[in-house]
Amino acid sequence: MKRMLAAMLTALMLVTFLPFASPPAQALTSLSVAADFYSLYVGEEIFWFVDDIQGGSGNYEFTFDVYKNGKLLKIGAAQTDDYLYFTPTSPGRYTVKVEVVDLVTLATLSKVSDPVYIFEIPIKITNVESLGTSSLKITWQKIPGATKYQLWRSTNKNTGWVLAKTTTGLFHANTYLQAGTQYFFKVRYYTPDGEWSKFSPAAAGVPMAKISITWICSPGKGRVRLSWQTSDGASGYNVVMSRRSNRGFRSVRTLSGNSITFSALKSGSILYFKVRPYRKVYSIVNWGVYSPARGVRVR
Fold it and tell me: What's residue 129's pLDDT?
């Protein structure tokens, strides 16, 4: 009996001092990878993140490999953050392959995201302004990351395009043009990836001579009469008026001639006028520059 009790006591002591066995770690079974937006422009940031990891210890390491149009673009380094910011520099279909490593069990699981479509930033011409009888100033928007721009010109919207200027600036004064002729312009930019973008929509302009008001007077009570130079190539003229010499002008008349008389004006007031030419080709109206302002006191 004593021997039996001693054996049982010895067995109990052995069990007490044996290390407790850890429960088996749960294997990684699934995960998801998402992006905040699935349609962006070049230069806009993609934000990919890992979500809903099933299984594992909860202690993970992540690797994000970026693909463009199915080809490996960037190999990621191991990180503890479960997200990635990436800025594409050219259009295409971008995906990310995420590999998750459980740092406790060393189990791995990978997942490829749904594609994010990156589109080229559209460029457009913002203004075409006549600088005189034979020149036009063309201005376009700035594109982030663009290293240079090409301006192309034609007298036909659909054909006959020639390179007018390659520049790093955002405008160009195109000279030696024919007065009264309508010119079309389009612009494109050079991307950081060494590719030319698509062209902007065409914008039109017509060189017109600068004009000035040659005569202004108040011939009678409440009346003002003015006349101005004609401009080669102009279809007509727009007259604007203000009570101040440098601001607040509003359009008061558009006409084809080069003189006009206003009536029913307030006696004693001082009014300022400016005139600009325009050329209308089909439905497109091309504006010239305003003349210097001239003022008169109304009788």
Answer: 86
Q: Domain 125-205 maps to which CATH number in 2.30.30.140, 1.10.150.20, 1.10.8.110, 2.60.40.10?
A: 2.60.40.10
Q: What is the DSSP letter of 221?
A: T
Contacts of 183 (CB under 8 A, 6+ apart): 136, 153, 154, 155, 174, 177, 204, 205, 206, 207
CB 102 within 8 A of CB 57: yes
DSSP string for 119-136: EPPP--EEEEEEEETTEE
State the DSSP H helix or E strand holding residue 215, giving kind and residue range, or none if neither: strand 213-217
Both structure tokens of 26: 């749960």
Q: Which two tokens stand for residue 82?
A: 């479960």
Q: Using CA atoms in the order 166, 169, 170, 175, what is the torsion angle rounded to 10 degrees? A: -60
* CATH superfamily of this structure's domain 213-297: Immunoglobulins (2.60.40.10)
Position 19 scores a pLDDT of: 47
pLDDT value at 287 more than 80:
yes
d(CA 43, CA 119): 10
Q: Is residue 28 exposed (0-12), middle (13-18) or buried (19+ Cβ within 10 Å)?
A: buried
- With beta carbons less than 8 A apart as the criterion, state whether 79 and 96 touch: no
Q: Residues 228, 275: contact at Cβ < 8 Å?
A: yes
